[in-house]
Design brief:
Length: 118
């Protein structure tokens, strides 16, 4: 999420960095889990004219995450598609990072994904 806030955000750099990260994790033999980003553009502390820019970047980053995970056989939770994942009550005061309830929602969703994959 911090990457998409960078004014210099470029999808190809994001993809390359994520690829290196996922490759390193996969090389350990671990089951690699990742997730897309929820569509939280509307709840972020942004000027109104930047909400759509943020939404487009979140969508672009999520598409990249899906693609990079698929290339490496990583399990990818689609947080963008989880109903209620953008509920402001699931985020801390910065409206970017999940709070305890948000982390629990994600943990439960990851557990379900792992059970489905088994």
């Amino acid at each position: 999420m911090n990457d998409i806030r960078d004014p210099a955000f470029r999808g190809e750099h994001f993809a390359a960095g994520l690829g290196v990260l996922l490759d390193g994790l996969a090389a350990t033999g671990a089951t690699v889990l990742t997730c897309t980003l929820p569509d939280i553009a509307a709840i972020m502390a942004l000027p109104a004219d930047l909400v759509e820019v943020a939404r487009l970047r979140i969508r672009q980053a999520s598409d990249i995450i899906r693609e990079q995970a698929a290339r490496r056989g990583a399990l990818c939770l689609d947080a963008w598609a989880i109903p209620g994942a953008a509920d402001p009550g699931l985020f801390g005061p910065d409206r970017i990072h999940p709070n305890g309830r948000g982390h629990q929602l994600m943990a439960d969703a990851f557990a379900a994904l792992l059970l489905d994959a088994a």
